[in-house]
Description:
Layout: E1 23-32, E2 35-45, E3 50-54, H1 61-68, E4 76-81, E5 84-85, H2 91-97, E6 99-101, H3 114-126, H4 136-147, H5 163-175, E7 181-185, H6 193-208, E8 212-216, H7 220-226, E9 229-234, E10 237-242, H8 244-248, H9 251-258
Parallel strand pairs: 3-8, 3-9, 6-7, 7-8
Antiparallel strand pairs: 1-2, 1-4, 4-5, 9-10
Helix pairs in contact: 3-4, 3-5
Bound molecules: adenosine-5'-triphosphate (ATP) and magnesium ion.
Magnesium ion binds near residues 61, 62 and 104.
Amino acid sequence: MSVGTERVADVETEAYGPEDGVLVAQDLRKEFGGLVAVDDLSFAVQSQEILGFIGPNGAGKSTTFNCVTGTYPPTGGTVYFKGEDVTGLPAYEMVHKGMSRTFQEFAPLEDRPVVENIELALAPNLLFTASGIGGETERLAREICRRVGLGDVMDQSPSELPHAGMLKQELGRAIATQPDVMLVDEPFAGLAGQEVQELTDVMLSLRDHGMTLIVVDHNMRGLLNLIDRAFVIQFGSKIAEGTPEEIKNDPKVQEAYLGGEEI
Ligand SMILES: Nc1ncnc2c1ncn2[C@@H]1O[C@H](COP(=O)(O)OP(=O)(O)OP(=O)(O)O)[C@@H](O)[C@H]1O
Ligand SMILES: [Mg+2]
């Protein structure tokens, strides 16, 4: 089936090919022993789209990220990135091909300032090249810090950052590898309104500069305000897909996600 951005998803017969998006998963599956965490999931992300991945705790969102980005090999299915079958490639190869991610739980090096933590993430790209010499990596790391809103605090230790600063730092580390596609796991966790808006603005600006983003978060208001399209999963399977407006009004989503409460 040929699909494009305007296509209406057919839940039963979905079949994507390598050219259907910058990132495509077809029948992606991950089992942990007897537990099926990702249950033959198919989706396609278009270039410069911001796709929201929504679902209750344990729905399989992070596991999907892990299978797509090479943290775990999937049990089954196919992942296409920029038209190429990349199923099961290790994470460093995915980074090399232009995909990066943030982690829900991350541990910066506390004895190095924020800017050096970003600089270390640049390392695979630049450290051993001519441009890694003469402070070029530091210059780039400082530029990334400013881009994610850490310009004033980049010489501090990560331990001095407020929670929002930690999340910005994690975003900065993922940006440092110069990805085309970035998977962002819970950027708004624990943030208040203004901070959510700051992170939103950073991600919108990344998209304006050509990046494609897939974002998971439980902050529905914040997420729906950021994304172009939502993909909703429960028990590792898709239950809905649509615009933020469509998702907000979908009774299946309200039931699965909030036990029937209004979003
Ligand atoms: N490494 C693992 N080994 C065994 N089971 C796992 C592993 N990682 C995840 N799971 C299980 O897979 C299911 C999906 O987990 P996952 O972390 O993907 O959910 P999630 O949608 O990201 O949830 P949350 O919103 O809480 O982050 C859960 O039942 C979880 O316990
Ligand atoms: Mg998760």
